[in-house]
Amino acid sequence: MKINSKNWIKMYFGLTFILLFTVLAVVIYVDPAFHYHKPNPKYFYKISNERVQNDGIVKHFDYQGVITGTSMTQNFKTSEANMIFNCEFVKVPFSGATYNEVNNIVETALANNPECRIIIRGLDYGKIVEDKDKQRFDLGVYPTYLYDDNIFNDVNYVLNRNTLFGEVYPMIIQSKRDGFSGGYTSFDVYSNWMNGNKFGVSAIYSKNQDLGSSGNPKHLSDAERTMVQENIIQNVTNVADKYPNVVFYYFFTPYSVAYWETIKGDGTIYKQIEAEQVAIEEILRHKNIKLFSFNNRYDITTDLNNYKDSMHYGEWINSLMLRDMFDEKSILNEDNYKRYIENELMYYTEYNYKSLLGQEDYIDDNLAAQILAEQSFIWAQKHNLIGEGAKLDLSDSKIELSSSVILFDKEKDEYYISCLGKLERDQYTDTDLAKYLLEKNYIGAKISVEGFDYKYMTFLGRKVNNHGQPTVYVYNDKGELLRQCIAEYNSLDEEWQKYYLDVGGLSGNITIVFNGGYTDRTGSPDSQYEFCDIRLY
Questions:
Q1: Measured between alpha carbons, how far is 314 from 322 in angstroms, rounded to an integer?
Q2: If you ran DSSP here, which 8-state letter would residue 194 be given?
Q3: What does the pLDDT look like over 340-349, one tens digit per residue?
Q4: Per DSSP, which regions of 176-267 are E strands?
Q5: Which label site among 115, 142, 171, 192 has the fewest CB atoms less than 10 Å from its CB?
Q6: Any long-range contacts for 147-156 (C-beta under 8 Å, 24+ apart)?
Q7: Nearest to 415 by CA among 268, 532, 259
Q8: pLDDT (tens digit, 9 = 90+) per residue, 484-502?
Q9: Contact, 233 vs 241, CB < 8 A?
Q10: Distance between CA atoms of 514 and 473, rounded to whole angstroms?
Q11: Helix 269-283 crosses helix 257-265 at what angle (to 10 degrees)?
């Protein structure tokens, strides 16, 4: 049978159409950006791209609360917010975003979800004096085709090579593996930047840095005052007026004392606080907005162990702020805001900044986290959000041991895990420690918990000899690290210490590795560490 040129052309275009339609249908069915629907339970969705996925999250997920802002909100845990405010949250931060950009996601969420009743939003302190329409085009191309209602420009998404081969195809392949279960990245984990960061004075300042200079005072001009008012009205308060039945928890992000040292040095501290007052006065006109500032929590802002740089605080500060907002601590109102402004200006203009270089820098960056984790645990008990702890039975044969034994202390009537030795992990390896402990080796115990539904975990631990130290990691069934508790051996004595770990929001099959050995081969082979009294609340 002869096929003439017309038939060839028809066949070519017909096959091309079928191919394109198939690709389009598959991308829409899987939909890694949640542009058309909520996650398909047949697949696992890695939530990692704020600008691509946040819009779809607020349009299609089920929730009653939203946490949003810049990188200052990336370390919030929705599991904590769920427990504290008794509703389901999603977290949709935009690193480096302006007030205008964050307001857009708030507007989108409220327009698409009538069930939403709480917005928790960080108001970046350094972005108050900005143009109301400013956007950050220096952070990458905006996928505006995902934000609008124009179905024709969706071709940029559904017929995108990177979407098909970089996201959809790997998700389909993954779903075929034995033991696979669908789902999506926990909002506790999404955008969290804690891993690998160092905190404290040495992370912010060099040893001989000159601190404490004072620049010529600079004040807010009339044009800048107008800019602040327009920014706040358009991007902060208008949405509250539009949705009077929604409660807006706004907070000024608490930068460290190192930030205040900088703006005191260039004289802009006066302008910044004047701008803050203008913003406060605009916001307080609106009764469904609860406005908080933690700039007067000097125990937070002056302790550089809470910060990785002059602005970014550890996740334990996010936890503290959630509790304080619920309790309405550090709230600003008509009666106290002028006194707050006066105290803020006086404190940060008179502070002894030179003393910062002599501040204690915790050897163990997790110490600050542990202090506030304990406070969080006590707070949850006080508010009757957790009950009596379920003690893990260490005599259970399901516990997997490696380079360790379970012993019984007759005097205490207590089983404990005795860990001996060091890991044979090279100190210069590129292998992540969490991955190493889960997949290769650990010194201690691996415990699996099915149907996990707890809010806190506590345990006792002590270094018995040399380099023993606790490294406790919590994973889901995909091998993703969800929680961690670490203490460096040289910050420990040989007394029992109690450790607290927030595990709220975790569910399904959870694996907990209790590693008591030093984390690479440079440790002593005689190192010893012990765990006991492991409880889940």
A1: 13
A2: -
A3: 999 999 999 9
A4: 183-184, 247-252
A5: 115
A6: 147/55, 147/104, 147/108, 154/35
A7: 532
A8: 888 888 889 999 999 998 8
A9: no
A10: 7
A11: 120
Helices 337-350, 257-265: crossing angle, 10 deg rounding = 80
Residue whose entry in the numeric block shows the structure tokens 């606790």: 470
What CA–CA distance (Å, rounded) separates 352 from 356? 8
HEC string of 288-306? CEEEEECCCCHHHHCCHHH
Give residue 3's pLDDT: 58
Smallest CA-to-CA distance from 519 within 458, 432, 457, 459 is with 432
Task: For residues 467-494, give the mean pLDDT.
Answer: 90
3-state secondary structure of 311: coil
* Range with lowest mean pLDDT among 58-62, 136-140, 387-391: 136-140
Q: Choose among 288, 253, 534: nearest CA to 396.
A: 534
Give the residues across from 515 on adjacent strands: 444, 471
Beta carbons of 469 and 463 less than 8 angstroms apart:
yes
- 383-442 residue pLDDT tens: 888 888 889 998 876 799 999 999 998 888 899 999 999 999 998 888 889 999 999 999
pLDDT at 14: 66
Sign of CA dihedral 475, 370, 457, 379: negative
Please say whether the beta carbons of 126 and 271 come within 8 A.
no
> For residues 324 and 292, is the Cβ–Cβ distance under 8 A?
yes
Distance CA 491, CA 486 (A): 11
- What is the spatial distance between Cα 92 and Cα 89, in angstroms, rounded to a whole number? 10
pTM over 0.70: yes
Residue 8 has pLDDT above 70, yes or no: no
CA-nearest of 502, 480, 457, 121 to 321 is: 121
Query: CB within 8 A of 268, min separation 6: which ones?
Result: 215, 218
| Degrees to nearest 5, angle at CA 402 with 529 and 534 | 55
> Computed from CA positions of residues 341, 368, 187, 389, in that sequence, does the dihedral angle turn out positive or negative?
negative
Rounded Cα–Cα distance for residues 17 and 460 (Å)? 64
**Helix/strand/coil for 161:** helix
458 forms beta bridges with: 500, 535
Residue-wise burial string across 167-204, b where 16 or more C-beta atoms lie within 10 A, e elsewhere: bbeebeeeeeeeeeeeebbbbbbbbbebeeeebbbeeb
Burial of 5 (0-12, 13-18, 19+ CB in 10 A): exposed
Tokens of 49: 């791209």
Please choose, from the candidates 368, 513, 320, 324, the residue with its C-alpha nearest in 3D space to the C-alpha of residue 435: 513
